[in-house]
Amino acid sequence: AMTVVEQITQLRSLLEQYNYQYYVLDAPTVPDAEYDRVFHAVKELEDRQPELRRSDSPTQRVGAAPLDGFEQVRHEVRMLSLDNAFNEQDFDSFDTRLKKLLGRDDDIEYACEPKLDGVAVSLLYRNGVLERGATRGDGQVGENITSNVRTIPSIPLKLIGSGYPDVLEVRGEIYMPRSGFEAFNDKARELYEKEFVNPRNAAAGSLRQLDPTVTAKRPLQMCCYSVGLVEGGDLPARHSEILAQLNQWGLRINVDSAVVSGAKACMNYYSRLGERRDQLPMDIDGIVFKVNSIADQQRLGFVSRAPRWAIAHKFPAQEELTT
Ligand SMILES: Cc1ccc2cc(C(N)=O)cc(O)c2n1
Q1: Under the phi-then-psi rule, with left for phi > 0, alpha for psi from -120 to 50, and beta for the rest, what region is 235?
Q2: What is the reported pLDDT for 317?
Q3: Which of 115, 158, 290, 314 is catalytic?
Q4: pLDDT below 50 — which residues of the chain?
Q5: Which of 56, 63, 116, 268 is most buried, judged by most C-beta within 10 A?
């Protein structure tokens, strides 16, 4: 027979797989009732023997005590903002300038993804365990919102698989899917409580809560888009491969991410996503194009605060939906 420790360890890893399939891959393999059964089995064992409880157990997402305030966090690697392109001409000159700087005239390979309209966040994993979550702030100093990010199911409390660096800082966007936003506002209206104006404000407001049990009730998601500090390990040579690797380690990436070569293919991707914009599950305000080769990114470096190797091609501002 299994010892209690073997039993609880097996049940926890089963729960982590269910979490990953449901919240990160959008591909659950068991009905919710099975998930609940295993969750309560782990909870039961931990309640009966509290010394078995671990901070990275799937049952430990919602802390109890509200904070008095948010501590400050200094980002060892600055969190970048993005330069904007507002039309095809801007993008073409971005692409032309890069070719000149890289001394080449063949097509540049770009990693493309929707620019989610949410709140940028930094997640620091040490030996695969989530140690700290922080807002972008001014890029250099942000706020420690670890207790709030822990409540977001698509953010793993510990990485899965193996081969991740000792220290891995993941950057991503926390957002509220439109369906969750509308459901939240319907409820708020019913209870004569404050409604949010848009999903971005709803995500920002939910992360600013000092009480994590409030954040835990908000339908937040996180999609990662790059890495920051990396120590004790190395990552693939292309941005798209880094994202794929992060996905295997348990982090959510955007299903519409793609790799294309040359400015024309980028504009094609931009138009296609633009046509689907209103059908996407979340608000986006443009497309982010990044030079896919990490070596070329390093060659190109940054201009002031924004990287030379990336640009956000914005969509026209949507007239505010009159509710
Ligand atoms: C470098 C950088 C900075 C901010 C970003 C923001 C988003 C976003 N809002 O989805 C996506 C990215 O790939 C980003 N990349």
Answers
A1: beta
A2: 84
A3: 115
A4: 323
A5: 116
The pLDDT value recorded for residue 151 is 97
Contact 135, 208 (CB under 8 A): no
pLDDT digits (tens, 9 = 90+) for 64-91: 789 999 999 999 999 989 999 999 999 9
ipTM: 0.97
Q: Which of 78, 112, 173 to mutate to test the pocket of ligand 1 (most atoms within 8 A of CB)?
A: 173
Report whether 46 contacts 56 (CB < 8 A). Answer: no
Query: Is 194 assigned a catalytic role?
Result: no
pLDDT in the model for residue 320: 62
H-helix or E-strand containing 199? helix 199-207
- Taking CA atoms, 280 is separated from 89, 161, 260, 274, 286, in Å, by 26, 30, 21, 10, 12
User: Is the CB of residue 80 below 6 angstroms from any atom belonging to ligand 1?
Assistant: yes
**How far is C-alpha 310 from the geometric centre of its chain's CA atoms?**
18
Closest C-alpha to ligand 1, atom 12? 225
